[in-house]
Amino acid sequence: MYQDLIRNELNEAAETLANFLQDEANIHAIQRAAVLLADSFKAGGKVLSCGNGGSHCDAMHFAEELTGRYRENRPGLPGHRDLRRQPPLLREQ
Known about the structure:
The chain has helices at residues 3-22, 24-42, 54-67, 88-92; strands at 47-48, 79-80. By secondary structure, it is mostly helical. The chain has two domains: 1-44, no CATH class; 46-93, no CATH class. The chain has a two-stranded parallel ribbon with strand order 1-2. Strand 1 (47-48), helix 3 (54-67) and strand 2 form a beta-alpha-beta unit. The mean pLDDT is 84. Pfam families: SIS_2 (PF13580). Residues 37-93 form the SIS domain. It comes from Klebsiella pneumoniae. Its EC number is 5.3.1.28.
């Protein structure tokens, strides 16, 4: 019933990723961000993530990925998401 819609959405996502990968500037930007994060951790720094709406959830998830084990058994990395700063709508629910 929804198979065509699902295929179309997945094909569009694959095309978007392929286009993203073709632009070397994107790869360099990600590398720069990774180096900045690694350098910060090595210097005793931490990541502060923030967002509004859906980005709030992304920020919280990112901090959880840093402080947890993520893909391998390793100590958590210093990341922080201040839950006291949730949007009012989230606090009321």
